[in-house]
Design brief:
Strand content of chain B: over 45%
Low-confidence stretches of chain B: 1-12
Helix content of chain A: 10-25%
Largest sheet of chain A: 3 strands, antiparallel
Mean pLDDT of chain A: 84
Distance between the termini of chain A: 31 Å
Order of helices and strands of chain A: EEHE
Oligomer: heterodimer
Structural class of chain A: alpha+beta
Distance between the termini of chain B: 27 Å
């Protein structure tokens, strides 16, 4: 890592979002929407006023990922 | 051979954090990067898991539809997880973009699209084909950082963000 590299560490995704699709705001500092499908989350983010959401899938609680689906 | 830049190597860095149930410290750290997926009709951004053990780069089908990316449904293939679970994917062509610390990496490539519901534990996977073959990934467990440095055969140019 270069010495001049700085970036904000993202906040942790709360456990209540486990297993769900979520949308961060553009700067990835706040979750603005969550849902069971990407289209749902896209629409919810739009309604929340976020024009450039960043989508993510929160991992399931108590399930560790080691590759694959 | 050419140098992508002369002096500083500027990495793409992000470790996402997820609160989880009964694991020892209650927090799961994952190497994910904000990935911009660009097509003829638009663009969407996802947090994609950097997986050096993955053969392919896999994106959710919804993004293909949202951005109007061309796919070849006559060429489906199968991807498999560690337990042998199989998932059908179709290839498509997109532009991918990673941006961090003032540098923009943007390239055109072939990726695989999977049904959204098949992506149970990650929104997208950045694997060898389509992405990691063009980068030197470095995982720093101590500092909890990920570094992606483009290799000389990165199939595009690196530009400075505005």
């Amino acid at each position: 890592m270069t010495d001049n590299q700085t970036f904000e560490r993202p906040p942790a995704v709360p456990i209540e979002y486990a297993g769900r699709w979520i949308a961060w705001n553009q700067s990835q500092t706040k979750i603005v929407a969550a849902g069971e499908t990407l289209p749902q989350v896209r629409e919810a983010a739009k309604k929340a006023g976020e024009s450039e959401p960043v989508f993510a899938k929160a991992p399931r609680a108590n399930v560790r990922f080691v590759g694959g689906r | 051979m050419f140098a992508l830049w002369a002096d500083d190597e500027v990495p793409v860095s992000r470790i996402s954090r997820h609160a989880v149930g009964r694991f020892p410290d209650g927090v799961l750290l994952r190497p994910e990067v904000p990935l911009r997926i660009i097509g003829p009709d638009g663009a969407e951004t996802l947090l994609a898991l950097v997986d050096t053990g993955a053969d392919a780069t896999v994106l959710p089908k919804w993004t293909q539809e949202a951005i109007g990316a061309a796919i070849d449904e006559t060429q489906p293939s199968i991807i498999s997880g560690i337990a042998g679970q199989e998932l059908e994917v179709v290839p498509g062509n997109v532009e991918l973009m990673l941006e961090q610390a003032g540098q923009v990496f943007r390239w055109t490539t072939r990726v695989d699209f999977a049904a959204d519901e098949g992506l149970v534990d990650a929104a997208a996977i950045l694997g060898h084909a389509g992405c990691l073959r063009y980068f030197r990934p470095s995982f720093d467990g101590y500092d909890r950082e990920l570094e992606l440095v483009p290799t000389p055969d990165f199939p595009a140019t690196v530009t400075t963000s505005k």
